[in-house]
Amino acid sequence: MKVLTLLLSLAAAPVAAADAVHFTTEDYPPYNFREGAEIKGAGYDQLLMIMKQVGIPYSIEMMPWARAIALAETTAMHCVFTAAHIPERDGRFQWVEPIAIGRNLMIGRKGGGIDVRTVEQAKAYTVGTQRDDYTETLLKNEGFTKIDLATDLKLTLKKLESARIDLMPVDEQHYIALEKAGEPIEVKFVFTEQTFSIACHPDFPEDLRAKMQAALDALIADGTQAKILASYGLDRAKLPELVANP
User: Fold this and answer.
1) Most Cβ neighbours (<10 Å): which of 99, 117, 159, 236?
2) Alpha-carbon distance 22 to 200, whole Å?
3) Contact 23/41 with Cβ under 8 angstroms?
């Protein structure tokens, strides 16, 4: 895997190489994704601005989600983005947030003949998601037993479209992008709402986390975050109304 390493010129005193921050992420549009050889995304763009303001060396590597989040939890000076801040993860990381606020939708195959409008109805069907993704935790907490796990979202989507699974949870903005691309999918109901964040190793230096948080707070305060989100279709005022889970 190719590592994109971005070494910033330091505005403050030099730091040791050991102080570099290592970020991991996955291919999950519109928050972080590859377009040719370039990495883009609403989370990625904010991270670049945050680290430019903080002014220390860092690296970014894209990989399967299970490995990306495991590194942030187990390896010093590692962070993962864009991670959903759910209760089960709260004490496992240090948090910089919010990168975005989003809803998660339960979707099915268009014309698949499955009519579900609630969590309880959906439990009768096979639901697919990514291994170690926050949606796996949400499904288990809700009592789903027929859970099919894949290495990434693209594989889960292929399983849905080939009728190997019946349903899958997906972020609202990603659903909108998939629908615009002509994917044969449809919304069944709103599954959850969550905060998306940068999640860092539990022993991540608090002074550095605070600097990252302050840089993010500044992006929010001056409207930069809103402009970035809107540029990736994440302007919540323009998102379609969807039926909430009863």
Assistant:
1) 99
2) 10
3) no
Of 98, 44, 55, 48, which is closest to residue 213 (Cα–Cα)? 98
What domains are there in the chain, each with its CATH number?
A: 3-100+196-238 (3.40.190.10), 102-193 (3.40.190.10)
Residue at 2: amino acid letter: K
Q: Omega of the bond prior to 246 within 30 degrees of 0, cis?
A: no
Identity of residue 41? G
Tokens of 124: 């009768």
The pLDDT tens digits for 195-245 are 999 999 999 999 999 999 999 999 999 999 999 999 988 875 444 555 444
Q: Do the strands 38-40 and 94-109 form a parallel or antiparallel pair, or are they unpaired?
A: unpaired
Q: b/e per residue, 76-109, with b = 16+ CB within 10 A? A: ebbbbbbbbbeeebeeebbbbbbbbebbbbbbbb
Pairing of strands 21-25, 78-84: parallel
**What predicted TM-score, i.e. pTM, was given to this entire model?**
0.71
Q: What token pair was written down for 66? A: 């299970």
What's the rounded Cα separation, in Å, for the pair 129 and 159? 10
Contact 199, 72 (CB under 8 A): yes
- Cα 107 to its chain centre, rounded Å, is 17
